[in-house]
Write a structure and sequence with these properties.
The chain is of the alpha+beta class. It has a domain at 69-210 and 287-397: Up-down Bundle (Outer membrane efflux proteins (OEP)). The protein is built from 10 helices and 8 strands. Helix 3 (62-129) packs antiparallel against helix 6 (204-224). The longest helix is centred in the N-terminal third of the chain and has 68 residues, at 62-129. The protein is rod-shaped. The two termini are 62 Å apart. Pfam families: OEP.
Length: 412
């Protein structure tokens, strides 16, 4: 890639440079030397060729600084690729889980809507026979409208999540074959403090900032290299024929040590050094900002994961209580001691508790994957090691089972 070729370019300064120069053409010479020899207006067909090999021995540490800077930039490039790859994986996992979330919510609310509609029909028949209460029918109709509105909202959210899924994966999801997945506890640090410690060493964004600071530091040495002389070993061979007014062939061979030291460059070196120092300080400060922001993102994700898990546990208890209330209402109704609308309300509360639980469950899983992302651990291996959950097992924790109409209903 580009960063690897950049290293090759910087290392080229360690290798010798070879060049060939050749020329041929007519020369007309009229000089003091030719006139002293009585040769005026000499004209020859002249040819010349020079081969030179130059090996730099010292350049003020510029080559070493350039190579070190290029290697640091290569590390930054590798971590940039890792960060992009992990962000894409997080985007894919989030899209996948959101499709599952909305699929379950649509099915749950479909079950709730069906239960309300059935109860409405029963109450309507009771009123027709003269044994029902018309107010109960109106209340059931009101609850049915609310359930329909929720169905529209959940179906719209499902369509949106499917659109996002298609954008990420390039094809629509197969809803029936998708199963939830959970992050194994072993993949997560034991505490937020332990995660913060690992963050500095594992997060690719922090590694990018560190590598860029290293590169900027080496650029200071490169900028200051022109304070020193440049030392080269030069070997050359030259052959001339009728060149510069001198008839016949001439051969020159030389091996010499050349030292070039620029004593004044118009304050260019101090300016370059000051610029490199400023860029290094900027990179250091940028690295600190990146570290703080990444730590904040990790802590927010960790808090979101903890809150979602606690909410899921509380909502699981709420579902158990709502389930007991619902069963009690049914028994009282069968004994003639409870109204149908109260039974319907109890069932509606059970559906609502399960909907909230499903949201909390998927929130906790998305947050867990986001924590892995901030730690730099969300790669394809992490996804492969995620624990799959049996289809509809999340909703099964609510005490619900699939119904014939494609939704869910309370287990009998």
């Amino acid at each position: 890639d580009a960063s690897h070729q950049n290293i090759r370019r910087e290392k080229s300064g360690f290798l010798p440079q070879a060049s060939i120069t050749a020329g041929a053409g007519y020369e007309h010479t009229d000089s003091l030397a030719t006139r002293a020899l009585g040769l005026e207006n000499q004209q020859f067909f002249a040819t010349n060729a020079t081969v030179e090999v130059r090996q730099n021995l010292f350049s003020g540490f510029s080559r070493f600084a350039g190579t070190a800077s290029a290697k640091a930039l290569k590390r930054a490039s590798e971590n940039t690729l890792a960060a992009v790859r992990q962000n894409v994986i997080l985007e894919g996992v989030t899209a996948y889980l959101n499709v599952l979330r909305n699929r379950e919510l649509v099915r749950l609310n479909a079950g709730n809507e069906r239960a309300i509609r059935e109860q409405l029909e029963l109450e309507d028949e009771r009123v027709t026979r003269g044994s029902g209460i018309s107010v109960d029918v109106l209340l059931a109709k009101s609850r049915l409208q609310i359930a329909k509105e929720q169905s529209i909202a959940f179906e719209g959210a499902l369509k949106d999540s499917i659109s996002t899924y298609i954008q990420v994966f390039g094809h629509p999801p197969t809803l029936e074959s998708m199963v939830p997945m959970q992050v194994p506890p072993s993949m997560l640090p034991e505490s937020k403090e332990a995660a913060a410690e690992k963050l500095q060493a594992e997060n690719p964004v922090i590694k990018i900032a560190s590598a860029q600071a290293d590169s900027a530091m080496h650029e200071i040495d490169r900028a200051q290299s022109t304070y020193y002389p440049s030392v080269d070993v030069v070997g050359s061979a030259n052959i001339e024929n009728n060149f510069a007014g001198v008839e016949d062939v001439r051969h020159d061979y030389a091996v010499k040590l050349e030292l070039t030291w620029q004593l004044f460059d118009g304050f260019l070196t101090p300016a370059n050094s000051a610029e490199a120092n400023a860029r290094y300080k900027e990179a250091i400060q940028s690295g600190r900002d990146v570290s703080r922001k990444t730590t904040e993102l990790m802590e927010l994700s960790w808090h979101e994961m903890e809150v979602a898990k606690e909410r899921a546990e509380l909502l699981r208890n709420a579902m158990n209580i709502a389930g007991e209330v619902f069963q009690s209402r049914i028994e009282l109704r069968e004994a003639g001691k409870e109204t149908a609308i109260n039974v319907l309300d109890a069932e509606n509360e059970l559906f609502s508790a399960c909907i909230n639980f499903v949201n909390a469950f998927f929130d906790s899983q998305v947050a867990a994957f986001r924590v892995l992302n901030t730690l730099g651990r969300l790669d394809t291996r992490a996804v492969a090691q995620s624990t799959p959950v049996d289809n509809s097992a999340v909703v099964a924790q609510c005490g619900f089972t699939p119904s014939e109409g494609g939704g869910y209903q309370p287990a009998q």
